[in-house]
Amino acid sequence: MKGSELIHYWRDNLLRFLDASIEECTFQSSGDERVCQHCAELDGKKFNVKYLIEELQTRDGLLHKCENKDNGCRCVLIAVLPELEGEQGNEKTDSLSSILWAVGIMVIMIFVLLKTCV
């Protein structure tokens, strides 16, 4: 996704998090050499969902600073589920995090494929 598409994607996900009563999310980069310095610094950090929605409203907000946003940023926001919070190393938490990360990547890939086919 590029530019404004990415910003809309993040905003829509954040609004879905709020609809599901999810108050926090974690920023997850793809962790490879294509990740920009800004996203690498955000990788793994936890944010309040309402705070990020407000940040998206400003042109110089936190998520707008991605150096790759116009070239196909692949970072995702992963919901922090309150009942699993603080259970790091727990097999249930680790599996769920992996599944959520994979689903986020699949959504991005499908979106990119649809855009290239049209």
What's the topology here?
Elements: H1 3-19, E1 24-28, H2 37-42, E2 46-48, H3 49-56, E3 76-80, H4 91-117
Antiparallel strand pairs: 1-2, 1-3
Helix pairs in contact: 1-3
Q: Specify the helix fraction band.
A: 40-55%
β-sheet strand percentage: 5-15%
Task: Provide the number of structural domains.
Answer: 1
Number of helices: 4
Mean pLDDT: 77
Q: Using the CA coordinates, give the radius of gyration.
A: 14 Å
- Categorize the overall geometry: globular
Largest sheet: 3 strands, antiparallel
Strand order of the largest sheet: 2-1-3
SSE topology string: HEHEHEH
Q: How many runs of DSSP E, i.e. beta strands?
A: 3
Which class best fits the helix and strand makeup?
A: mainly alpha
Oligomer: single chain
Q: Stretches where pLDDT falls below 50 for ≥5 residues?
A: none
N- to C-terminal distance? 14 Å
Please give a quick description of this structure.
The protein has 118 residues and is mainly α. It has 4 helices and 3 strands, in the order αβαβαβα.
